[in-house]
Amino acid sequence: MDQKFKFSPSVFGSSGTVEQSSYALKAVSKGSTSVGIVASEGVVIGTATRKTSELMEPRGMQHVAPINTMIGMAYSGLSGDFRILKKHAQRCSIQNNLSNGSAVKVKEVAHCMAILMQEYTQMASARPFGVSLLIAGCDKGVPQLYDCSANGTHSTRKAIALGRNAGICTSFLESRLTENLKIEDAIDTALLALKKGYEETEAELKEGDGDDEEEDPMPTEVIQIGIAYPEGFECMDSNTVDEFYATSTYLD
Amino acid sequence: MDQKFKFSPSVFGSSGTVEQSSYALKAVSKGSTSVGIVASEGVVIGTATRKTSELMEPRGMQHVAPINTMIGMAYSGLSGDFRILKKHAQRCSIQNNLSNGSAVKVKEVAHCMAILMQEYTQMASARPFGVSLLIAGCDKGVPQLYDCSANGTHSTRKAIALGRNAGICTSFLESRLTENLKIEDAIDTALLALKKGYEETEAELKEGDGDDEEEDPMPTEVIQIGIAYPEGFECMDSNTVDEFYATSTYLD
Amino acid sequence: MDQKFKFSPSVFGSSGTVEQSSYALKAVSKGSTSVGIVASEGVVIGTATRKTSELMEPRGMQHVAPINTMIGMAYSGLSGDFRILKKHAQRCSIQNNLSNGSAVKVKEVAHCMAILMQEYTQMASARPFGVSLLIAGCDKGVPQLYDCSANGTHSTRKAIALGRNAGICTSFLESRLTENLKIEDAIDTALLALKKGYEETEAELKEGDGDDEEEDPMPTEVIQIGIAYPEGFECMDSNTVDEFYATSTYLD
Amino acid sequence: MDQKFKFSPSVFGSSGTVEQSSYALKAVSKGSTSVGIVASEGVVIGTATRKTSELMEPRGMQHVAPINTMIGMAYSGLSGDFRILKKHAQRCSIQNNLSNGSAVKVKEVAHCMAILMQEYTQMASARPFGVSLLIAGCDKGVPQLYDCSANGTHSTRKAIALGRNAGICTSFLESRLTENLKIEDAIDTALLALKKGYEETEAELKEGDGDDEEEDPMPTEVIQIGIAYPEGFECMDSNTVDEFYATSTYLD
Amino acid sequence: MDQKFKFSPSVFGSSGTVEQSSYALKAVSKGSTSVGIVASEGVVIGTATRKTSELMEPRGMQHVAPINTMIGMAYSGLSGDFRILKKHAQRCSIQNNLSNGSAVKVKEVAHCMAILMQEYTQMASARPFGVSLLIAGCDKGVPQLYDCSANGTHSTRKAIALGRNAGICTSFLESRLTENLKIEDAIDTALLALKKGYEETEAELKEGDGDDEEEDPMPTEVIQIGIAYPEGFECMDSNTVDEFYATSTYLD
Amino acid sequence: MDQKFKFSPSVFGSSGTVEQSSYALKAVSKGSTSVGIVASEGVVIGTATRKTSELMEPRGMQHVAPINTMIGMAYSGLSGDFRILKKHAQRCSIQNNLSNGSAVKVKEVAHCMAILMQEYTQMASARPFGVSLLIAGCDKGVPQLYDCSANGTHSTRKAIALGRNAGICTSFLESRLTENLKIEDAIDTALLALKKGYEETEAELKEGDGDDEEEDPMPTEVIQIGIAYPEGFECMDSNTVDEFYATSTYLD
Amino acid sequence: MDQKFKFSPSVFGSSGTVEQSSYALKAVSKGSTSVGIVASEGVVIGTATRKTSELMEPRGMQHVAPINTMIGMAYSGLSGDFRILKKHAQRCSIQNNLSNGSAVKVKEVAHCMAILMQEYTQMASARPFGVSLLIAGCDKGVPQLYDCSANGTHSTRKAIALGRNAGICTSFLESRLTENLKIEDAIDTALLALKKGYEETEAELKEGDGDDEEEDPMPTEVIQIGIAYPEGFECMDSNTVDEFYATSTYLD
């Protein structure tokens, strides 16, 4: 342990929970919805951002980002905090390559992020990160999906949903997932899960406004999808997202 | 992460929001109104300051500032804080030129500012910056407009309004914006948006005073406009502002 | 004592208890149940995690981890904090080997962990670790079981249960333990103790939900078992766990 | 940004204001009144101190101080804090001369002071300075007047009043100022503005005492005046102040 | 005084007591009972731990520990804190031997411990140690007993009791002690005093449980005894404890 | 500004006052009364201490202290704090002599003290000094009297009183002071002023005691007087004080 | 001033008192009574400790301690804190001898202690010392008595009492002291003063107990006396104390 750490704002509350960790998880649960699904030949991760103004360009900002050629990352929570974590993950990947002479494993990236994020819940002189991460990649062809939570834990999942209305998405994922899911089906499922979450969010917000209009369907521009194939990670271009979305909503 | 950061005043509140970030955004929403508009051949950014005394020389202080020959910056919020950020942006631009041998991109400046501003919401031993920024420039001829928010997020926009009465300006911008906006129309639109915001602010303040006089129109001297052309960024001189203003209010 | 330690959040409350220590123990008592049993020819340690979603892969994360070829560790509490402690234990083992030229003893690992964990209850500028550890190994063939508590104490035990419903497990262990316990019986007993704790936890949570369904039996996938034989420590593979579990529940 | 800054006492309040900055401005508004006026051939700055005892020698202490041969500074607020700022301005002037080989500009001094003063509202481990400054000088013959506020902002002014009863002085200045003001008229106006402020202050304090005597006129010894001519900055000697005061009050 | 000490949590309360010191003494008064008795040819120190579970091995943990061949230490309070102090005492003994070339005196060890413990009540950035110590040894054949209190004081005693129900033990000791006490009688007295304290504690706890069963006698396994003979310090083996205990209770 | 300053306890209160400064001034106003008077050929400074017990030797402690052969210092407030400031003044005088090769001026000492004292009201990690100083000396034969206040301001005075009942002393000084005061008259005036203050203090304290005895006159032993002649500073010996006191009280 | 000092817990309260200093003085006033008396040929210092248990050996701990061959020290307050101060005084004495080549003066030791003790009331990151000191010695044959108070002041005295019931002792000392006191009379007076204080303390405590027994006389073993002769400082052995005590109580 490095002795230079100063007083941390993260201490235990009387019920045994680390309060700043719990609050950070609340920040995550208010962020954009993100989902991850392990298919038999790859991993799909994606997010749906809310478009708060016509003037925004949601696709201008990266919600799904590559860490290296093989591994990608999505998130729910504070976008400013994600920027820091993305940078850290990229540095971790490069250092690993340099010292091991081999590509970093998905598990190693997840471990590396979880170490950093735990530190901010216990020792660093700063609040925890208000972000939970999805990390996707294939190690020797085997698809891997990890989540690193704002409270410093990490786990491996068949599928997962984070952020606003994650509960609804999760139920949907549980109802649809099968063994040996094809990658195309995983994309469809991810899009539909994000749509469920998005529409629920819109409905909640309209209710808040006492506004009774019919729900608009989710515009495709709020969606970003990344796929970890055994050959490498790639962010889906917006046309392909549009095509898949058209198909998948048809299927719904 | 540098271990030397000390205890930060920015921690999570129980609802999952970073309180100092929220308060910093309030400081922004009380500052001078600023707008940014992407046209087809450039980006217009501008601010309208309140003139609190006849003795002030509003054009004496820079509210729209060039970062280098290609990129400019406007802001809403605390002017003392802006000074620090402007300096940081200029240093970031120079370092980038030195290390890359090529001109810094608008996106890179925005990223650099957002990294710093995020840091002050999580790790630095100081309050966050009470400023949101508009960063405008053209990369290889393509007009780019970024905003960096006091809470450490950054995004890219077709148009945006910040500061006092930003909501009114935004509505106006949404109603007027069209595809393939000419640069002259963007200037007119920016001036009219600033006028809307300015007059609303004056009205609010007079109401506060129980003062019933007719509204004065916005004097041109409170306005500063900068334009990022593909050839470079320039701050409009005051005569040109006056001319455009005369035209645009005529058009209104 | 190193003078560089900064202000610690751990101070005495007016009743003479170190509050952060007490709260850390609460975090432990909410964590996954873990048990440890000393048999005549080895030590069994194990944990039962709750599976909160069908999408989780409980065996994907290490709850029972080897420290070196001879010694293993299980835990109850915050998994992020455990990661740090595991790393520390491995480093402690390596350093000991380097400086002594002989394998580290179980007692030495326990001592080393307890020193670190005590420090975080008194001197380090961070909250205590929200984890209690079970450390198992054989020194010159003699089975040894230590627990290191979140409050910095360590002790040696014939058997022990930690975490959620540790009380129920402990009663069960007390009722079953005999002198000269065979290793297979110790495994059976550990599995049954974990099952008791698991089912109680499920019952409590269902009650909380006002949900009246019949209790599901504990699925074997939530269980991880490690055994310290005189020849070395090994984590039991999942098939073997399944077999033992089938037998032991039959015996119950 | 230097990472060595420690926790700052200046944080945002919930309304988006930096509380320590606001309180520092209150300290300024309780300090001696100071005024600054830009004339066509120079800048006049001056202060009126209250004489709290017959035993005080108000002219013994510098309220208007030269920074170098060309630039001078006056202030309202805490005199102890001013001493630090004056020293800093002088150092800033010398460093500028050394590194640029040319005389420092008024604007550069103002910028330098504002940078320091902003820092104490955001980052330094100390309260902000309880002082606002007037900085006067001529750059290539052009008279320049800047104010640097305790909250870290700076601006350029035709004329300004700071400190106790600054509002009354400002109104007076607004009513009297004309274009192309001669330097002698600027001195008269400054003296009369200081007199207005001084007498109002005396009246307020007498009222506080329930004391009904007639107001004493302002004694000249409480006044200090500095003038920035194109040839250089000079503090007016007390006889000249007396003469001008006699004339100006005659004119009133 | 080393200037590197940081802010201490130990400050004076308004009544002139150092609050953290008082609370640390409460932690001691809740710990296992320990006693020390000076006999004419040696010193007896001992503790009685509560056995909270059948699975515990009370003799597995050291409550009475040798510091070097001549001096031993017992304690009441937090066992994690004791581990640190024991280590410090051993280091202090070694350093003394190295620099003086002669065996450390009991008094020197007591002084060394008291210096450290005082520091944590005034200067170190940590809570005080929640432990009081008994230090026993013979200097040139003369039996010596010191206690070092959690509040940083040390004193020399003919006999002393610390920890839970220390008052009852002290009364017993006062009633039994005579001049020229033989070592065997001192052991008997220590055992009986520990028995008084132990049974009182058990009674209190049963009362708390509303449990009315007859008191169990103190099991010998909870007792640890150390004896400082002129020839050296030794921890009594458990058989000898059992024999003495049988005799002494017979005598009672 | 040195960046190493840590968090200061001195911050602004909501009314714009620096609270620790105000409280430090209260500490001064409770201290021994001190007076300073500028005569035509020198400066007289003096203090009157209360004698709280017959056993005290008031002349044993320095209340008026020489800084170097030319300059002396008196104070009101905390004597422990004065010790630090005296040392600092002496060091400041020596450094000045070393670097300038000429004797330090009274003004320079005052400036040096005020810089230090201001720092403790803004930047240092400690409370302000609870002391105000009188600094007396002759520069090239011209008598000079400065006061440095606990709040970091310094000023020059014809005469001044500090500490308990300073108001009464000041009124007396104002009523007696004339131009071209002889040094002997200044001493008489100082003694009488101290006597006024002393007797008022005694009266207040007796009233507090409900004690009605007649006032005792001020005993000369509580008085210390220092005189800055053009030739040098000297502390008056007690016999001379006695003589002057006899005369001056006769004159009263 | 060393810039490395960190935030001090000692700040001014609103009434101008340094709260931690006041509380430290309360800790002193609860400590053992100590007295000091200047005789014509030496200084007597002494303390009376309360004996809280028959098992205590009051003479085993040093309450009156030599600093070097010429100077001794007694105290009232926290014994743990005294240990630190004694060590500091001894180091101060040695350093002085080394650098000056002459024996340290009583005044220099007092000054050195007061500097340290003041520091802890203003600048050090720790509470003040809860101790007041009596320092006794002869400089060139002249007896000297200094007290250094917990609040950082020091003074010289003919006689003084500190600690519990210091007021009663002081009154007694005032009534008995004469000029040219012989050393034997000073010892008698010191013993009687300690006896007064001791018996008052016992009476108070018995009252607290509702205990009505007759007062026991003060046992001599609680007393420690040190005498600073012109030839050197010595701690009186216990037999001599007994003899003097017998005589002096006879005289009473």
Helix and strand topology:
The structure is a homoheptamer of 252-residue chains.
Chain A lengths: L18 H11 L3 E7 L2 E7 L15 E3 L5 E6 L1 H22 L5 H17 L8 E9 L2 E7 L5 E3 L2 E4 L3 H11 L6 H27 L13 E7 L2 E4 L2 H14 L1
Antiparallel strand pairs in A: 1-2, 1-8, 2-9, 3-4, 4-5, 5-6, 6-7, 9-10
Helix pairs in contact in A: 4-5, 5-6
Radius of gyration of chain A: 18 Å
Q: Specify the oligomeric state.
A: homoheptamer
**Residue share in helices of chain A?**
40-55%
Structure summary, number of beta strands of chain A: 10
How much is the average pLDDT of chain A? 89
Describe the structure in your own words.
The structure is a homoheptamer of 252-residue chains. Chain A has 252 residues and is α+β, with helices and mostly antiparallel strands. Chain A contains 6 helices and 10 strands; from the N terminus they run αββββααββββααββα. In chain A, the strands form 2 sheets. A 5-stranded antiparallel sheet of chain A has the order 8-1-2-9-10. Chain A has a 5-stranded antiparallel sheet with strand order 3-4-5-6-7. In chain A, helix 4 runs antiparallel to helix 5 and helix 5 crosses helix 6. Chain A is globular and about 50 Å long. The termini of chain A are far apart. The N terminus of chain A is likely disordered. Chains in contact: A-B, A-C, B-D, C-E, D-F, E-G, F-G. At the A-B interface, helix 1 and helix 2 of A face helix 3, strand 7 and helix 4 of B.
